[in-house]
Request: fold
Amino acid sequence: MWRQLTSMRVALILLFLLSLAAIPGSLIPQYQNGQGQLKVEAWKAQHATVAPIYEKLQLFDVYSSVWFSAIYILLFVSLAGCIVPRTWQFVGVLRSQPPAAPRNLTRMPVHAAWRTEADADAVNAAAHRLLRKRGFRAHLSGGAVAAEKGYLREVGNLLFHLSLFALLGGFAWASLASGTGGKLMVQGEGYSNTITQLDDFNGTRFYGNQDLDPFYLKLDSFTSKFQTKGDQIGAARQFTANVEYYEGSDQSKLKKSTIEVNHPLEIGGSKVYLIGHGYAPFVSVKNGKGEVVYRGAVPFLPQDGNLTSTGVVKVSDYGVGPDGNKTQMGFSGFFLPTAPLSFEGTGPVSLFPGDAEPELVLNAFAGDLGTDSGLPQNVYQLNTRKLTQLTQDGQPAKARLKPGQAWDLPDGYGSVTFEGYKQWASFNISHRPGNAIALSGGVLAILGLIGSLFIQRRRIWVRAVALPGGGTQVELAGLARSESAKIAEELAELAVDLQDDAPASEDEADDAPAPEGEDGTPASADEDGTPASADEDADTETDVPEETGTPTVPAASPEPAVPADQNSKE
Reply:
């Protein structure tokens, strides 16, 4: 079980499962997001049948759920089980010498060979010097030079896996020590970052309401601009919240700043994100005696891209109604930033998100709002169970009001005046200490992946052997850990550079020493393609014709070339 868990196959499966498990978090409203509580409750109201099932499956809290945590914890263990032994193995490789040269270098995939009159020890020493100059780890022993290069490939591989570990670690730390809160503010309003003044708050195991960063934030004004012509008419072009804030309780340190989409304001250890925008009609209500019983701006929530917004006005302190009994009043309706001339065929909808022709549409109710029961209510919804809709001429009472217009309510209930409107903005206050760790892990993972893909690990061996009749046989061979033409190029360059210290004999001077490729063409050959060197498969020594004056070459052993490192997959 341990071997299976720490295998690469299981690690990839767990990584795939983690990505699949994150999908519900992007499709279903989450408690952790800004205005999460409101969105979750709205979603539950629209999907009453499956909402209890989703609640039991923790689909509204995916990233803190038991099943999601189990996946990334198993991935933690799998990565740790892979990385630790692999790291120690790589340290052992770095501490050891490059693998010794195989017995028959000319049977390697890429090789070159020629004869020279230079001393064998001098040739080996020159090859050792040239390889080290090219950045190879070279070792000279036993009459041959063994060199290896490209260790950064494995470093990149390990860095990639360690970075995934850091990425998961940052995510886990954020899940345990982060918190988010939501706040909607109308222009001119401010709040202190305390649990009692936040609209909603979601903490974690190590971050509760007592850990909130102390600061004060006020929305001075809000600027919104939309495209007014062309194919993208109505598209948002600017959302800017102009704010004032100070940290702690020292009001003398008041500062001004702006918050834009994807450009949060950082205060202490928290970041304040701009996540929403809308309109808040400013309404005043008078009772039958002409007394102002309500006056204020009420946020209406957008329902479409043109900011057709719905909302309610609750007048809990209306007082005594026309019938002499204590009563409360409620108004529900729409705010249309750009209202059409007629609602026929379309209903109350806005034609443009900007405030070109603002209009407020209201319905009136009287009775018991239920606000005195002590039970919490949604401030954006009107519970009409104990309310009666006012009528006028036998029809439900309703009115379309432009800024500055008033509506005289029927049956002596007073009047409602649409004095104007303000803009509101909603903010997400986020405290996520693991973001920097996750970002660093992501950047290092990309760098490690680049290194593991583009750096080639390769080995080169050089052997210079004195021939019995005089002279020296020089053999070079290269082996890449992956398919690459770079090893052939490096071997050719090394062969050319080595000519300064080991020039080819005169009988081979016309044939440039070049490495043999995969097509089997020898490094040095006559015009008819016959190898200039001795037959490598011969079991006995081969005599060279006397007229050449070239000494005999020892026959190559028929034993296949095997790297000295028997544990190597090569």
Q: What stands out?
A: The longest strand covers residues 270-286.
